[in-house]
């Protein structure tokens, strides 16, 4: 009996010693972000609440938008995380990058999201839906942020530029210039004013100017996103009645012209036109094509209709307030008439962050490699 008690006492002592030792160890430090800040420019694909307080039809701050997001309906045009939310997590940020509309003080040093639903490269794009912040205005807003940041660097422009040169900049523009401009002839004259080739050329001219302005403000590591296969989204499928193709290839062919020019623009920027800058082209056209072709292997069962919406393909009217969405969002490629589901966004973020050169949708390097240069 005595021996048994001694053993119990010994085990208890060892157990208490291990607890004390564990408690004396400092808690693990949170993983530091791989870059000091992340700035985001774009449209509803990455808007996270900038349109909430303005007069526009392009807003998503109501249920069931955000049904799978921890904070609920924040203004994200999907059921959960956007592509840039998922990418920010991969970059090591513990919190989502906040919308510019609600970012003040030192928080601006970590980055901001300037994206606005319905926004485009051209100033008039998206005006059919109401107010929004165009790419020109988003760049101007970033210019104001740089002025704010100078105060935190006590006016030391060299140090500020060094800081910004380590940050990641993301720009996803162009979709609305086609959806809510060129292919909306009842509201805009651009399709009669320009051929598809000429329209792509003027878009790229404006976009090159805007990206060059970001460079002048300090951007050095920049991701630019191609326009996806918008001829295949539920909104277009609900309106298209072609016999030879599932998608509206007239729209897709116009997009290809723009995307080809955008990739060439990236080459020009990287080959000395903007010294010290490194641009990455994100091929979301190829990624959306591959998602259709390889849907089953990716876990998607429904690729031609929105999880939430009204009419043919759930694409004639987008997701209405308090509408009941599909039950298993993970099986749907599209959340609504225009936007991918959270699952699609996460898969794209992973593929572009550290995908290899053969299978990745990034050129000339993946995003993880961009962070390290």
UniProtKB/TrEMBL annotation:
<dbReference type="Pfam" id="PF00657">
    <property type="entry name" value="Lipase_GDSL"/>
</dbReference>
<dbReference type="InterPro" id="IPR036514">
    <property type="entry name" value="SGNH_hydro_sf"/>
</dbReference>
<dbReference type="InterPro" id="IPR051238">
    <property type="entry name" value="GDSL_esterase/lipase"/>
</dbReference>
<dbReference type="GO" id="GO:0016788">
    <property type="term" value="F:hydrolase activity, acting on ester bonds"/>
</dbReference>
<keyword id="KW-0443">Lipid metabolism</keyword>
<protein>
    <submittedName>
        <fullName>GDSL esterase/lipase</fullName>
    </submittedName>
</protein>
<dbReference type="InterPro" id="IPR001087">
    <property type="entry name" value="GDSL"/>
</dbReference>
<keyword id="KW-0964">Secreted</keyword>
<comment type="similarity">
    <text>Belongs to the 'GDSL' lipolytic enzyme family.</text>
</comment>
<keyword id="KW-0442">Lipid degradation</keyword>
<dbReference type="GO" id="GO:0005576">
    <property type="term" value="C:extracellular region"/>
</dbReference>
<keyword id="KW-0378">Hydrolase</keyword>
<dbReference type="GO" id="GO:0016042">
    <property type="term" value="P:lipid catabolic process"/>
</dbReference>
<dbReference type="InterPro" id="IPR035669">
    <property type="entry name" value="SGNH_plant_lipase-like"/>
</dbReference>
<keyword id="KW-0732">Signal</keyword>
<feature type="signal peptide">
    <location>
        <begin position="1"/>
        <end position="24"/>
    </location>
</feature>
């Amino acid at each position: 009996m005595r021996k048994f008690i001694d053993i119990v006492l010994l085990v208890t002592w060892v157990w208490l010693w291990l607890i004390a030792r564990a408690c004396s160890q400092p808690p693990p430090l949170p993983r530091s972000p791989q870059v000091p800040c992340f700035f985001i420019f774009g449209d509803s694909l990455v808007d996270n609440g900038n349109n909430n307080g303005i007069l526009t039809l392009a807003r998503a701050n109501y249920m069931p938008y955000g049904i799978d997001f921890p904070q609920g309906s924040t203004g994200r045009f999907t059921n959960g995380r956007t592509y840039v939310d998922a990418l920010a997590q991969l970059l090591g940020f513990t919190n989502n990058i906040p919308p510019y509309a609600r970012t003040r003080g030192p928080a601006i040093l970590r980055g901001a999201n300037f994206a606005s639903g319905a926004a485009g490269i051209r100033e008039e794009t998206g005006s059919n839906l109401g107010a929004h912040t165009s790419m020109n205005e988003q760049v101007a807003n970033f210019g104001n942020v740089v002025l704010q940041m100078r105060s935190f660097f006590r006016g030391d422009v060299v140090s500020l530029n060094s800081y910004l040169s380590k940050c990641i900049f993301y720009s996803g523009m162009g979709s609305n210039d086609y959806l809510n401009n060129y292919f909306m002839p009842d509201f805009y004259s651009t399709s009669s004013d320009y051929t598809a080739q000429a329209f792509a050329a003027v878009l790229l001219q404006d976009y090159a100017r805007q990206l060059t302005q970001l460079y002048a403000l300090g951007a050095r590591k920049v991701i630019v996103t191609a326009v996806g296969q918008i001829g295949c989204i539920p909104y277009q499928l609900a309106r298209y009645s072609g016999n030879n193709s599932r998608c509206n290839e007239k729209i897709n062919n116009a997009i290809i012209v723009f995307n080809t020019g955008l990739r060439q623009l990236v080459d020009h920027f990287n080959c000395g036109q903007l010294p010290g800058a490194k641009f990455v082209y994100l091929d979301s056209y190829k990624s959306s094509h591959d998602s259709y072709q390889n849907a089953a292997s990716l876990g998607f069962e429904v690729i031609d209709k929105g999880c939430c919406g009204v009419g043919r393909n759930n694409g004639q009217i987008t997701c209405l307030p308090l509408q009941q969405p599909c039950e298993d969002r993970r099986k749907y490629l599209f959340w609504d008439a225009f936007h991918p589901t959270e699952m699609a966004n996460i898969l794209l973020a992973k593929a572009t962050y550290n995908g290899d050169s053969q299978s990745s949708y990034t050129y000339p390097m993946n995003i993880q490699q961009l962070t390290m240069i």
